Amino acid sequence: MDNQHEFQPDSVRPERRRFKRIDKSYVISYTPMEGEELKSDVSQIKNLSEDGLLFIADREFEKDVILKIKLKLPEFQDYVIVKAKVIASKKISKGMMYDIRAQFVEIEQKVRDSIKKLVEYAK
User: Fold this and answer.
1) Burial 65-98 (b: 16+ CB within 10 A, else e)
2) Which residues are bridge partners to 80 per DSSP?
3) What are the phi and psi torsion angles at 11 (to 5°)?
4) Residue 40, SS3?
5) What is the pTM of this model?
6) Domains of the chain from N-terminus onward
7) What is the pLDDT of residues 83-95, one digit of tens each?
């Protein structure tokens, strides 16, 4: 494994993402698909791509946990529901706030296409 990029600032690191992201704030609700605590929480997306999203949560999730996410997109009248696998949880503040990176594992093609359009036409 090449660690030469580990300590370089973000502006110097090569882009590793396969899909462009949009830095827009959309409201979501999310809940784990399994486990003791199945209550739904509300949050905001920090960024979104056709492959996944980054959002803020008030708790940490283990890697590979599957989340059911309700997302409101401009193209749809109602919320859309997707399933996403947690890739990473990173604590961002003392007040128990976490950045959650998740990759879509179940998403309708029309929803993926809508997100792709949002990203392509974002300014």
Assistant:
1) bbbbbbbebeeeeeebebebbbeebeeeeeeeeb
2) 71
3) -70, -15
4) coil
5) 0.77
6) 27-121 (2.40.10.220)
7) 999 999 999 887 7
